[in-house]
Amino acid sequence: MTARPTSKPWPMKWVVVAIVVFVVGYTVVNLVFRKPGRAYRPYQDAQDRATTARLLAAGWQKMPVDARRPVEKPATDDVPAAVTRAAVGLGPDLATNFAEQPKLLTTIDRVVAPGGVSRGADYCAYFTASISSQKAQVGDLTLYRRGAELVLIPSTEPLPGKDLMSRWSDSTYCVNFSTTNLPAGRYQVRIVAQGPALAWSFTVR
Fold first, then answer.
1. What are phi and psi of 127, to 5 degrees?
2. Which of 71, 128, 140, 161 meets the CB 3.0–4.6 Å disulfide criterion with 110?
């Protein structure tokens, strides 16, 4: 009985070539056909949708807001608003509407904000906040409005990388939003944290 000839193993160079072709092909397909934006997060997206629906049902609307670390010092030309302490955390009017509670800053230490603004102009306020962990930073900042009440909610997120740490536990930020869609009148604002919120009012002229 004649033995079957055995197949010769692939030379190592062809194995390497096959791996390279696969990796290059996969990369090209991934870059060309991958959808832009962040990855799909089923649980988090479901929580966000539930929160949005509850807030809308309770009369809260989300407003566009921009937050950044200012290079310049807060302006002192405008008459500043009087700032007072308010309730701890989100407050019962907001807390019950969140499917997942935001990770709030430890404290809001100081707010500098004008007492008035012309309608259509941007309203800018500065706040100094403290974070309990030096491995975290201020992440999203959202602004909700219900009638003449405005609530700013800054939340924390971990610093990228396991070894990165912030050099300071407190930082100053600038909050900026348009008053184009705000009717003329008096508005009450509060910025919330784990500790007492800071509250003030301003007039849209």
1. -140, 145
2. 128
